[in-house]
Design a protein that fits this description.
By secondary structure, the chain is α+β, with helices and mostly antiparallel strands. The protein has 23 helices and 27 strands. Among the domains are: 60-267, Alpha-Beta Complex (Penicillin-binding protein 2a (Domain 2)); 365-457 and 466-529, Beta-lactamase, CATH 3.40.710. The strands form 9 sheets. Strands 2, 3, 4, 5, 10, 18 and 19 form a 7-stranded mixed beta sheet that branches. Strands 12-11-23-22-21 form a 5-stranded antiparallel beta sheet, sandwiched between helices. A 3-stranded antiparallel beta sheet has the order 1-8-9. The protein starts with 5 loop residues before the first helix and ends in a 9-residue tail after the last strand.
Length: 715
């Protein structure tokens, strides 16, 4: 092999040196580039990157505000807040654990809190993600610990706090939840309402509306005044920024925006009166269930009831009770599926349904004062005399008086006093024969139907509570609409041969309904005149209408709230009564009906329950009712009023009006005015300042009310 020459060696050396120079130049240029880049990052844009790094180590945590209080008219607390231990899980830390460690931690949490493992897992899923369950998933910030158990025992919280190595990423802290002090032992569940976590749709709507008062961790009102005045009660959340390390552990507080507590809602409810009303309603139902129906030989079912006290001249709600009811505490900390099923259960009486505003019942004879107003405005007079016979034949059916009683020819006042059905049957039949004998004419004139609508029946009263039922006026249009909606069903039954599962009654009814179910017959008209048939009202509608008799015709929108007061004690809003309508009747008609209802209390169907009551000092007007319902026992009603208040009680399937509800009505009146035996003691009145009138109204010969005499010097 030939050895390289000296020239070749020199050329090779020069090439090697050149390569080294190139490499050195390349390394120097790279170092120069890095130095320039480092200078740019640290000096030129250093502040920007520092801020970005800081933002990655700071998290915003929502600080929920204390919800506002709800108090009665005397300032007694009805709903407050208390502290409760809440167990939460930091999903950031949990996500950095291995699968096995994660399962162990969640198993420990499930065991110590008593919650199921699957339930804990559901609560950790962000709403909208795969596997999320509405009402259970987490709507809040992904950086905020997720509550998995609320209102846990103190020992459970301490165990978690004392053993952090066994519960990494698990927090136990105190938060505020709703509390119910129950002054005088009141329940008031349907009026107050309850809270539950905000839904994803509600949160989206709030975001689009720019509403900053709610966030993913908020609880919002779902019923009662909690829902109606939620925007005032909820307050404004605060925000706390905390520094965390690379593992998500909190290192310290960075900054904080204080939360603003919710406002206090002052109501017109009086806890002392509410307590008496609730207890009387419950006792009345209990007594009715132990009483035998003389017609059927069975005990009364008394499956539900309601009682209401209103201010006659403002429409404010003083007390409102419904049965069956429930414990409002059941919603605190989250309600179980079993508890929720019970609240909706028909077997349990559907406790979540507030009968005072959502229950709808035939009014029975409590309807007759409004039919009297309609008759006196449409051709009849206070001197009209009609036969109160034991029965009235309409078509091929006898419509009977209660227990077939008969009083001969009487006027409207006596008919109200003894609650004569056949008297009012004759009025309803007369109008039907005059204006509506064409059974298919949906536009036929009907003075009694129009009068009922004028008194606000068949429409919501406008009370400041959600979910109010409108009741129903079963007039010609309603019957036509009902026929159109149901004719296919009943015609489907009648057009086929009768089978073993269809009773003779159902088959016969289906055939008749299919042919002429739209017809508004004389029987419908006479039933309407005494508050029977398909017409239904809510107890609140009836109470509001009796309030209009008491105050001379003003239909108020009932109000529970009186004012909203800020955390600093400043009145932010006064909630005044609002007028929904006026009943246009002559003063003498109001006076005539008023005196007739006073007669019901003095010597009529309510009198045996008011023996010994000081009616001369505390005049009470009343009307009893026993509404018959097909397939059920009769509904007991008593509607009553003074110049100050309206008191109404209803017990479904409870028997007669005064027989069942009369004693409770008397007790409520005694409470309101401080009646002790036969004496009135104003100092014992439930509401301070409630005193009997100083002068009884004076009635002229035509039934109108004279104004009170003016004192000397009055103008």
């Amino acid at each position: 092999m030939r050895a390289p020459t000296r020239g070749e060696e020199a050329a090779g050396t020069r090439r090697s040196r050149l390569r080294i120079l190139v490499i050195q130049a390349l390394v120097l240029s790279l170092f120069a580039t890095l130095l320039v880049r480092l200078y740019y990052i640290q000096v030129v844009t250093g502040e920007e990157y520092t801020a970005q790094a800081a933002s990655q180590s700071v998290r915003d945590i929502v600080v929920q505000p204390q919800r506002g209080l709800i108090v009665d008219d005397m300032g007694r607390p009805l709903v407050t807040n208390r502290t409760a231990w809440v167990v939460s899980v930091d999903r950031t830390l949990l996500g950095k654990m291995g699968g096995r460690d994660r399962r162990e931690v969640l198993n420990r949490v499930a065991v110590v809190t008593g919650a199921g493992r699957s339930e804990v897992e559901k609560r950790l899923v962000t709403c909208g993600d795969a596997g999320s369950v509405s009402g259970t998933c987490w709507n809040g910030s992904p950086y905020q610990p997720v509550p998995v158990a609320t209102d846990v025992e103190r020992g459970v919280a301490l165990k978690i706090l004392e053993q952090p190595e066994d519960y990494p990423g698990v927090l136990a802290e105190q938060q505020t939840v709703r509390a119910y002090p129950r002054p005088y032992g009141v329940n008031l569940a349907h009026v107050l309402g309850y809270l539950s976590p905000i839904t994803e749709d509600e949160l989206d709507q709030a975001d689009s509306d720019g509403d900053a008062s709610v966030n993913g961790a908020s609880s919002v009102g779902r019923a009662g005044v909690e829902k109606q005045y939620d925007a005032w009660l909820r307050g404004m959340p605060g925000y706390q920024s905390v520094a965390v390390d690379s593992m998500g552990r909190v290192l310290g507080e960075d900054s904080q925006t204080q939360a603003r507590p919710g406002d206090t809602l002052v109501t017109s409810i009086d806890a002392r009166v509410q307590s008496v009303v609730e207890k009387q309603l419950a006792e009345t139902i209990k007594t009715a269930r132990a009483t035998t129906d003389t017609v059927t030989g069975r005990r009364y079912a008394a499956d539900s009831g309601a009682a209401i006290v209103l201010e006659a001249d403002t429409g404010r709600v003083v007390a409102m009770a419904s049965q069956p009811t429930y414990d409002p505490e059941v919603w605190v900390g989250g309600i179980s599926d079993k508890e929720l099923a019970h609240l909706y259960s028909e077997a349990a009486g559907t406790p979540l349904l507030g009968r005072a505003t959502q229950g709808q019942f035939a009014p029975g004879s409590t309807w007759k004062p409004f039919m009297t107003a309609g008759a006196l405005s449409n051709g009849y007079g206070t001197d009209t005399m009609l036969n109160c016979s034991s029965a009235l034949r309409v078509g091929n059916r006898d419509f009977k008086n209660y227990e077939s009683g008969a009083y001969g020819f009487i006027g409207f006042a006596k008919a109200l006093e003894v609650s004569c059905n056949t008297f009012f049957y004759r009025v309803g039949l007369d109008y039907w024969q005059r204006y509506g004998s064409d059974v298919s004419d949906v536009d036929a004139k009907d003075p009694l139907v129009q009068e009922a609508k004028d008194w606000g029946f068949g429409a919501e009263t406008g009370i400041d509570m959600p979910g109010e039922a409108p009741g129903r006026i079963a007039d010609r249009q309603w019957k036509r609409d009902y026929y159109e909606s149901m004719k296919d069903y009943y015609c489907g039954i009648s057009e086929k041969p009768q089978d073993a599962e269809t009773s003779d009654f159902v088959y016969r009814f289906s055939r008749e309904f299919c042919v002429e179910g739209f017809a508004y017959r004389a029987g419908d008209a006479v039933n309407f005149a005494i508050g029977q048939g398909d017409t239904i009202v809510t107890p609140l509608q009836l109470a509001r209408a009796y309030g209009a008799i008491a105050n001379g015709g003003t239909l108020y929108e009932p109000r529970i709230a009186k004012a909203v007061v800020g955390p600093d004690g400043k009145v932010l809003r006064r909630i005044d009564p609002e007028v929904q309508g006026e009943v246009d009747l002559p003063a003498k008609t109001f006076g005539y009906i008023d005196e007739a209802l006073a007669g019901v209390t003095r010597q009529g169907t309510m009198s045996w329950r008011m023996i010994g009551f000081p009616l001369e000092e505390v005049p009470i007007r009343s009307k009893t009712g026993s509404a018959e319902v097909y397939g059920k026992q009769s509904t007991s009603w008593v509607a009553s009023y003074s110049e100050d208040y309206v008191v109404v009680m209803m017990v479904s399937q409870g028997g007669t009006g005064s027989g069942t509800s009369g004693p409770a009505i008397r007790t409520i009146w005694e409470t309101l005015y401080g009646v002790d035996g036969e004496q009135v003691r104003p100092a014992k009145a439930a509401i301070p300042g409630t005193t009997p009138p100083t002068q009884l109204p004076t009635f002229t010969r035509d039934g109108s009310v004279l104004p009170p005499a003016r004192a000397k010097g009055d103008s």
